């Protein structure tokens, strides 16, 4: 028997009938896995970048405070605070924290995180004021939201 | 009436339609990730001035960012690039007794104290003895805290397997900023401080347990029932506690 004498079979065409199914499956996977942005962005935020990041696994425990330049110029050109969907004042943070805490399951209320999404060009004055209000409202777990970068040498 | 033969619908374009939908979805949604530098704020106190306990100057690593975004460490201007190194120096100036040999004589840095298992056992026992004869309610809480502290240290010593040099409880890194400081600069400073502690913890963990501290925390995050890893984490934290404090006083 010689090895080279194999009979050459003709390749059958691969059926593409299941292709739509596969693609639909992918589509559904992405639809389920992605979270739609629920809040409207009233402020423009470019986060600073850092290397020592902590990732919060339990997303349902995070509440966001955005601080950045308002999209709507009627609010001026300086960074403002956005709570939920509205531009807010520093004084309203305490009430907001209390309201947000009630939306979390009672057993996990003490584990609430407040994520500060602050534009990198913001001045610290406004951030310090927010921190003070958070302390008054006993929301002490804070995350300074940042993008990932490598450690500098 | 004459019936027309049923024509088969061509399903070939179905895949294209599905692809279009998929790509549309991919482009419009953002996978919301939230990462950042975590911090624990100090609880709110009305009369701050009254409750301040005097802390020795050598126990404080003072980091200040002024309104011109200049960094002042212990009142001297330094570059952000040097901050990590300086922070490390503050933490290990007198050695940790485990991977950096213990040297008790460096001036201007917190005095680490070498603790052996015998010392810890003795301290725990004496605290327990005091608790049994204690009548004062106020003091009882304090004593219980002391006992808890020493139990933690004994546990850590069991994992480190040799005496380690303990940082004084008052030692801390104090970060403060001016109202006109840029947020980005502030975050970079916080990041470097965090990095110094993370690096030291990683080095110690590699030396003691052969894996990095970050990996250990990840493992524990995935398996909260893994007490072995948790105890190891506590042992690392005993040597390098998290001592960054959010000083909020502004001038």
Average of pLDDT of chain B: 84
Radius of gyration of chain A: 25 Å
- Average predicted local confidence, pLDDT of chain A: 85
> Helix amount of chain A, in percent?
10-25%
Which stretches of chain A are poorly predicted, pLDDT < 50 over at least 5 residues? none
CATH architecture of the domain at 43-148 in chain A: 2-Layer Sandwich
The number of E-state strands of chain B comes to 8
**Regarding quaternary structure, how should these chains be classified?**
heterodimer
> And the CATH topology of the domain at 43-148 in chain A?
Nucleotidyltransferase, domain 5
Helix-strand sequence of chain B: HEHEEEHEHHEEHHHE
Which sequence of strands runs across the widest sheet of chain B?
4-3-2-7-8
Tally of contiguous helical segments of chain B: 8
What is the distance, rounded to the nearest whole angstrom, between the alpha carbons of the first and last residues of chain A?
66 Å
Shape verdict of chain B: elongated
Percent of residues in β-strands of chain A: 15-25%
Please report the total strand number of chain A as a whole number: 9
User: What general outline of chain A do the C-alpha atoms trace?
Assistant: elongated
Largest interface: A-B, 56 and 49 residues
Summarize the structure.
The complex is a heterodimer of chains A (153) and B (251). Chain A is an alpha/beta fold and 153 residues long.
Describe this structure in words.
The complex is a heterodimer of chains A (153) and B (251). Chain A is α/β, with parallel strands linked by helices and 153 residues long. In chain A, strands 1, 4, 5, 6, 7 and 8 form a 6-stranded mixed β-sheet that branches. A two-stranded parallel sheet of chain A has the order 2-9. Chain A has helices at 19-33, 93-102, 124-136, and strands spanning 43-44, 49-50, 54-55, 62-70, 80-83, 86-88, 113-118, 141-145, 147-148. In chain A, 25% of the residues lie in helices and 23% in strands. Chain A starts with 18 loop residues before the first helix and ends in a 5-residue tail after the last strand. Chain A has 3 helices and 9 strands. In chain A, strand 5 and strand 6 (86-88) form a beta hairpin. Chain A has a domain at 43-148: 2-Layer Sandwich (Nucleotidyltransferase, domain 5). The longest helix of chain A is centred in the N-terminal third of the chain and has 15 residues, at 19-33. Chain B is α/β, with parallel strands linked by helices. Chain B folds into 2 domains: 56-114 and 164-251, no CATH class; 117-162, no CATH class. Helix content of chain B is 49%, strand content 13%. Chain B has helices spanning 14-28, 48-51, 80-92, 117-133, 137-160, 183-209, 213-222, 227-239, and strands at residues 35-40, 60-65, 71-73, 76-78, 113-115, 164-166, 172-177, 244-246. Chain B has a 5-stranded mixed β-sheet with strand order 4-3-2-7-8, covered by helices on one side. In chain B, strands 5-6 form a two-stranded antiparallel ribbon. At the A-B interface, helix 1, strand 3, strand 7, helix 3 and strand 8 of A face helix 1, strand 1 and helix 6 of B. Strand 3 (54-55) of chain A pairs antiparallel with strand 1 of chain B, so a sheet runs across the interface.
